[in-house]
Every structure is written in C-alpha cells, then in structure tokens.
Amino acid sequence: MKEKKITQDTADSECVGPKQMEADYNNPVDTANILLLPVKVKKKKVKKADDKVINRKKHEARKRRLEETEVKISKTKRKKLIKVMERKKKKESKESLLKNLMQYQLSTGTMSKLTAEIHPRKRAKPEECFVPKKLSNLAGCKCVLFPELKKQPLQENYYETGSESEDDLLLTEEVITMDAESSMCTVDGKDMERKQVEDSADRRQENLTNQNTDESKLMIKHHETINLLEPNTSELDVANLPVKISCIRNKMSLLEGAQKSNFVPVHRSESVEAQRSKLPIYAEEQSIMEAINENYATIICGETGSGKTTQLPQFLYEAGYTRDGKMIGITEPRRVAAMAMAARVAQEMNLPNAVSYQIKYEGNRSAETSILFMTDGVLMKEMQKDVMLSAYSVIVIDEAHERSMYSDVLIGLLTRIAPYRFRMGSPLKLIIMSATLRLVDFKNKRLFPISLPPVLTIDARQYPVSIHFEKRTPKNYLVAAFHKICEIHEKKGPGTILVFLSGKLEVMALLKWLVERYAIGQKRCERKKRRVEGKKLKQSQLELKKATSNQSKKAGKSADEDLADNRFADADNLDCGDPGSEISENLRPEGPCPRHSLALPLFCLPLYSLLSSKKQQRIFEPAPDGHRMCVVATNVAETSLTIPAVRYVIDSGREKRRHYDPVTGVSQFLVSWISQASADQRAGRAGRVQPGEVYRLYSSAVYSDFEKFSPPEILTKPVDQLVLHLKSMNIVKVANFPFPTPPDEDSLEEAERRLIRLGALQVAVKNNVKQARINLFGKTLSIFPLAPAFAKILVMANQHSLMTHACCLVAALSVREPLIPLYSLRGGSDRETQALMLQVLKQRRSWCPPGQARNFGDLTVIMRAILSAEALEGSQEECHRLGVRHKALIEIRKLRQQLIKIINSRCPQDKPFTVKIDMKPPTDEEMLMLRQIVTASLTDNIAKRVDPVAAGDLSKGAYQSQKLKDYVYIDPGSILFKDEPEWVLYQEIVERKHKKYMQNVICVERNWLPRLANTYCHFTSVKEAEPRYDPATDSILILMDGTFSDMHWSLGKVEQPLPVNVTLYRYFAQFFLDGSVCPSLATYADKLLLSPSTMTKPWAKLQMRTEKLLNALIEYEVTSRGRLAEVWRDKSEYLLDEYLEWLPQFLHEKVQMNWPPS
C-alpha cells in the first residue's frame, strides 16, 4: 500500500513538514496507514521593555537577600568559612605542585644506588610494618600512645643532603606509605584516588595512636636508616607513580614522638615495682594521664587503698611535668599525712632529694625538690606571694572530701587561675582527688564556668573487706570497743587492730584498760601478781613501773621490761582525763576480765593530733616479735595514712566535732555521729595488705540515718580571717567567690561587720552601693597568719614598744591548749596526782600577785609559764612540772620565729626584731598597756557579771555575754575564778556538762570601753549638758549617757567628743573667741562686741560676723587646735579679718601685730 501523503497548508513555517515527519517514521513492521498529527510549536515570547524592569527587580531582590544572609552570619562562622576556603585553595595549589614535581622524581634504580650520609657503611634493609599489639581501652577512655603525637611535625626526608630545599620537603610530605604486601597505589592526579589513599593512611595513623604501648619498654633504634623505595624497582612514570607501601610514616611518627617525649625514667627496685603493680590505680595510669593531659581540671574518685595518693605524683613525674623546673604540689589536710606520704613516695621512687614536704614551721624543701607534699595552708600562704603559682605545673588537692576551709578556697582560686595559665602558654593542671566526694558541689558551672571536668573512678579495692554491724547500738561505746578488742585479740587471726574513738581522753582511757588486761612478758606478769595482792590493778602497775625504773639504774633491763615501761609511760604520763569523769568511772568495764591463756601480748599505741610527732611516727614501725599491735586513734588516722598490716578496724561511729554558730561566734566541741563518707573512709583502712574486717559499734539502721557527707569546715569555723584574706586579694564581693559550698550570707555579713568594727574594713559607696573595702590597716593585718584580732594586738603593740611580749602572747593564744588543764595532771598515785595539782596551782597563783598581773588574769599565767619553760630549755620534764604541753611549746616557738621573720621582712625597723630566750616578764606598766591592747582587739568577747539580786535564782558567778542568751561562767581553773570581776574579757567559750565556761579570762575596766571600744558603744545626749574644750585631747567633749554593745549595758555618764556637724563648728568658734583654744586671746574675751556664746544661739544667723567666722572654719575643716596650726603654717592671716570684726577698732593694730595667736 502506498503511503498517504498529507500536507498542511496552514502549518507554521517553523513546524516540521509532513514529508519530514514521514521520513522520520520508518517502521517496517507497521504497515497500517500512517496518520501524522500536526505538531504544536510554542511560540517564543518576545521580550518587551517591561521584562527588563522585572529582571532588574528580581536581581536586586536576590542581591538584597544575599546581603541579609551575609549580615546574619556571625563573625565566628565567617572566620570558619574563610578558613575552609583557604584550605581548599592550598589543596588545589598543592595538587598542581605535585603534578609539576613528579617529572623531577628520581628513578628507582638511581635511588637504590644512593647511600645515606649518616651511616654510609650500613646498607638499608627493607622495613617491615611495625604494628604493636592492640590492648583494650581502660575505663572506657581512649588510649593514646603519645599525647603529643598529632602535634609533632613529621620529618619525611630521611636522606640528609646538602641541597635540601622546601620543594623536596613538600614532595616527601605528600608521599603516603601503606602496607607493602597488601596493594599498590597510583597517583594520576585524580582527587578521588588521592583522597582514598590519604583516608587509608589517616585510619592507620589513628589505629596506631590508639595502641596502648608501654613507653618504658618501647625501644626505638635511633641509628636505624629507612629507605623510601624498594631497590631494583622500575622507573617511576609521572602518570602512574608507584608508591612504596610500608609503615615508614607510622614508624617515624613513633620515632619523633619518642625523641620529643617528656618521659622521665625512674629506677625502682623490683620489690617496689611488684607492690605498685598490685595497686588498682596502676592499671589505670594511661586513662588518668590522658584525662589530665587533655583537661585543665580533673576529678579522681578512688576508693581507699587504691594508691592514688602515692602513685599519682609518680605518674605525673614520669610524664615530664617537672622537666622545665616546675614542681608538682600535693596538698594534704593533715600534717602527719603530708610527712608520711612524702617519705613513702621518696622511698618508692628512690629519689629522696626530689620528694619533700612542707608543713607549718617545718619542712625539707630544697632547690632539688620536684614533688612537694604540703598542707593547704602552706599553699594558701604561697599564693599571697605568687597568685599565679608560677613555680608549679600541677596542683593536686588530696582528700578533698575533708572540705577544709583553705582547700575550698584553693579550689575556687585554682579554677580561675588554671584557664588563665593555659591562655598564657604555661598550663597549670588542677586535680581534685578523694575517695568519697560530693560531686554536686564540684561539678557545677559556678565552679567551672568554661567546661566541666571529667570524673575518673577507680572502683577496685585491693583486698575484700567484710563489714559487721551491731544488732543494737550500745550506749557505752567505749566499753563495747574494749570488749571487741579482747574478742578479736583472743579469737581472731594475726593482724593489727585499729580503733577509732572521738577524743584524746577516750584514747588514753581505753589504752589503760588494755594495758591492765594484757601484760607484756610472762615473767613480768608473775612478778606483778606477787606484788598486787590485796591492791587495785592500776596502783600495782604504777608501783611496778617505779620499782622497775629504780632497778634499771642498778642493772640492765630485759627487752620485755623496756617494752612494758614504754607502753606504761604512754598510758600514765600523758593526759588521760579526770579520774572522776564519765570516761574513767561510768564507762569503765566492771572489773578486769581474765585474759585468754593463749593470747599473745598486745602492743598498744595511741594516735591523736596533740601527740608529739616523734610518738606519732611509732605507728609505722613494726610490732615487736610475738606481739599484736593495737592502735587506738581519733579521726587523725581516717585519711591518707596507711598503718602497716591493719586487718581489723573497730569504728565507734563518733567524733569530736567543732560546732560553730556564725551568728553568735561561739564554738564548742561536741561528740556526735560521723557521716557515711567518714564511716567508709574508716572502713577503707582495712584490706590494704590483706583481707580485712570492719566492726561497727552501731546498727545498720543508725548508719542509714547518718549524714552522707560531713559538713565543710567553712560552715563550722569563723570566716573573719578568710574574708580579710579575700579582701586583700581585691575580691570586694566575697559572696560571689566560687566556693564549692558557699558559706551562709549571714556569717559573711557578720564577719564583715566585725572587721569594720575592728578597723580592718571601711564602708565606701560606689555606684550608689555600699561596699566594705579593705584599708591600709586591714592590709597590714592580712600579712600575718593569725586571726585578725590577734594581728591587731601585734600592730598596736608595735606602736608602744611591746612587740616582744605581744609576740609571745599571740603565739601562745594561737596554739590549742598551751597549758595542761589541772584535771588532766597525773602523778604516780592518787596522792602524787593531788600533790602535783596543788603544786601547779600554787605556782600559777604565785605568777599573779595582786595588781596588774592579777588583773591580766590567765594571760599572765600563760606568758609566765611559757617564759619559764623557755628559760629551762623546754625539756619534757620541766614542761610537765610547770603544767605546759611540750608539743604546744615547740609549736609556739616556731610560730614566734615565723612572726619575727614576717615583722623583719614586711615591717622594716631600725634594728632587726629579735626575741631572747631569757626574756623577762612584763612590768606593771607594760602589763596595763597589754590589757588595754587586748581589750581594744577582742572587744567582741567582753562579758558583764549578772547582778545576783536582780537576777534572782541564779548560781553564783554567772555572766552575760554579748550574743548568747545563756549565762556563762569563769572556768574553775582560772586565776580569776574566785575574784569574779564585774567586766571580763575571754578568749573562747567551751561547753562542758551542759554549762558554758569562759577560758583565758582577764579583767576589763568599764571606763576604758568608750575610748577603746567606741564602735561598740551607743551614746545619747543628756539634757542641759554643755560642751567643753579639753586641751589634753584637743577636742570638744560633752556629757552623754553611754551603753555598751547590743545588750545596752550601762556605762553611766561619760564625756564623748561632739560628732562632726555644724554644731561642732559653732562650739569651736565659741571656744576660739573666749580663749579656750588659744590662751593668748583670753585677754580680749571681755572686750568682744558680742558674747562668744552668740555663736551657738538660735538667732546667730542674723549676725554677719557669726556667719563669716563659721564659714571660714567650715571651708578649711578646722575643728581642733592642731588643724588650726596646720592652716596657719600655710596661711598666716587665716581668721584675722573674721576675728577683727568681733573687736573694737582700737585693738585691731595690736592684734594684727601678734597674729597668729599662741
């Protein structure tokens, strides 16, 4: 069939014709008639003039949107975008450079003929891939072989040539090495292939850096030469460049990291290494160091016995934190812990000169010190000299759960100093470390505003510890502790027993009971039994001790006798409490129980804070052969210390805690329950060297009622010294300081109020806000390591040439219990005890004869006792005879020497200030001056005797303090106990047997208070009282009714200076006219045109001469003769015209000739 042709006349010229359509459609299968429809062609729109306007508007709108978007981009984002663009440009330029450099690449044959210039005789060997075994990550942290690996520049040109250029370095830096046996890679200029090679190398580099390699065992041969290319390979083609696939890049990264690492080798003995490897923290070294290296602050929570205190300083030392002359500082809350840990770390590291300790008044710090253990107060004092702590690279706050005041302040300061040191290029690492820590107080934005520190937990304890509770909580926990010790000693296996009690008296009482029950040496027991027939066991022991001491002079003693004498000396000669107290009578076990026949002797040692350092160190010595050691301690042994071979811990659950009332300022020591954190710390003392057992003398229900954590010390102590210290560091708003636990605002305000009254702060107005700022006097007080009131005593004493006696007095008052209380004195028997008490009491009364010495009260006794003991060279026997604690005397001596150094360095004088050992006691005049100085400094502690007639049913000797509602009494051991003066001043109030006693009391005269304690007095005007000018004080005085403190104790009618106001200027003008101020003008007083009293009349403003004279005085602020003389030295005719207006004309010439008057 013929194809039908259809034509279309009306088709547009642009349309395809039917012939063309027919030609395009050639389908041999389709034989049907072909119907071709005409194609509709869209007509092109012809642009008009309006289209240009529309396009322009669209372009402008799009441009505006881009500009708005660009404006919205922040500066930080814009900088990031610019850096991205720069990296892209560098990458493009680097790729083009590589393509151009490929044509200059040496052939493989040529490279194989070359020889390294470093070791020309050694032929290079093909290097195999170095892949350390992969270890599992510890504690979920990333393991980094070298912390500085990513930051180290890599050297890829291993052939040292004389014509090394930057182009060669660029070429070699881009050579990527891979596994030689796995595959070959070509570089042909395509971005995708190069990217794959680079990603593969990066992954291998990351895998290598994640390997846990022991740096101490990593041996890298520095003399090893490495060839980039295999020998005997074909020439390189520019289009298809073969690359050697090996681990050269990884190997050289390790080499560079090892060469630039700060690792410091430490040579330890095998036994020490074996002991360290058993500690739980030893396995966590890498994760801990990674966290420390990557963060400026780190928190480590490790259970007791994990070894964190001894091992972390060694980790830091080995990591190179002391290579640049910096030190690693570790703060401990207790002096004993600082000394013990320094000795332990020095022994393990075998570096006795590199590890030192520094505590108050004592230390072995030297120029070679790299690790320094110290108390927090020492570091706080060091920050006063160098707030940035530039000598340290790491600060470790150990036992942070103790929450001492200075540790809290240190943490607050270091959280601000560490980021600043990091920005300055000299990083300071802060590590907060404890076994039990309240993380909420430390992990918050208030303390760490930049970033929260990581928390690393070391869960493992060395050995398992079983904890046993009592079914019922015993009332007499001291007796329960005694029976538990006997049960353990007679029925349990070997191991040291550690007992926790609340105070020194309990420690010594329990020690005596144990000595009575367990004698040392069978022969000694037999001799003792023969001597104690019909007598008490205690008296027989004391008599036996005296007998053996007499025998030792004639013949030598056996080892058992020496051992028993030492133990009895501890129990008898030290302060053991009042025999009539609850401890020695009510809590004493009913009769000595016979000991088990097979029980070994028990070697008992006390441990408490007031014990001498020499006796405290005895707990670290091994027990004698065949003896079990029993350490009876207070909470001193709760933290940081590791007593050897402790297996059994007996926890009474009590502690003597200082309770401080921030409002009243009264502190008292009370026995109370411990916290759960403290109980866990005590339990942690067991199980350090073997499986341990803990016996808690309370039920589990009582334990669940304990507080989780002990209250921070900053909430239980006066904050006056802390506030003054922070003010001296220009911290005006102390409430805004980043405390881990902020103190109560009321206590801070009360402390500021006391410092204002003391004169250390002054109120200033800034931006309509009142602020208490430190003044020059306050800055002077802040340089002394004393309470502000005691520092004021030194400053005032220096003005009256009493510094030697004031220094001795302040040092004695700053030390806890310088004198042994009378009820704590002990003799060989009851008669000797009574005789010793009478002797000491008679001695103390002889030091206070009637007069100023008697009025100075207990402070006279303290000064005379210290001076007498110093004159006798401070031996223990003489101290005991004088009733002075020997340890307190040593501490007083050290504090006095420290104060002398501060005075000579910060307060230079004509002659260096020194204190002689044989210093004479103060005279009566000096004693009177010291009384007034103490009154002006400790005004808060003034009390007034209650009138027994007005009070009614009150016991004799009751006093009313300024802030306590309860009545207080003079301590029975005070010299002024029987005198009962009307006004007294005390150092502190102590509560005993539900009665509050004032300690260290002196007499105060009532007429001193308006002058020495003016800020505490309130005055009201007396009707019809007329002011008078006092030439002695050069002031205008007026009679007023005075009261003292907020209790409004009456001071009677007292004369007080007029306050500075217009009235003061009017009265000064009156006394100037009548000749009281200038006696030479008294001859003209009766010749004045008006009476001088006109100046104070209500109608004085009507007289021009009165206003003129008043304005002249106000202009120069003249209210005294001294100020008037100063103005006359600069302006001799001052007040001449004003005074002549009060005189007749004929006297003007005479007055002018004699002006200014005398």
Automatic annotation (TrEMBL):
Reactions this protein catalyses: ATP + H2O = ADP + phosphate + H(+)
Domain Helicase ATP-binding: 289-455
Annotated spans, Disordered: 1-24, 187-215, 530-562
Bias type Basic and acidic residues, positions: 188-206
GO molecular function, a single term: hydrolase activity
Domain called Helicase C-terminal: residue spans: 536-730
Keyword match Chaperone: no
Keyword Nucleotide-binding: yes
Example of a GO cellular component annotation carried by this entry: nucleolus
Matches recorded under InterPro entries: DEAD-box_helicase_OB_fold, DEAD/DEAH_box_helicase_dom, DHX37-like_C, DNA/RNA_helicase_DEAH_CS, Helicase-assoc_dom, Helicase_ATP-bd, Helicase_C-like, P-loop_NTPase
One BP term from GO: maturation of SSU-rRNA from tricistronic rRNA transcript (SSU-rRNA, 5.8S rRNA, LSU-rRNA)
Keywords assigned: ATP-binding, Helicase, Hydrolase, Nucleotide-binding
EC number assigned by the record: 3.6.4.13
Family per record: Belongs to the DEAD box helicase family. DEAH subfamily.
Record protein name field: RNA helicase
Higher taxonomy: Eukaryota, Metazoa, Ecdysozoa, Nematoda, Chromadorea
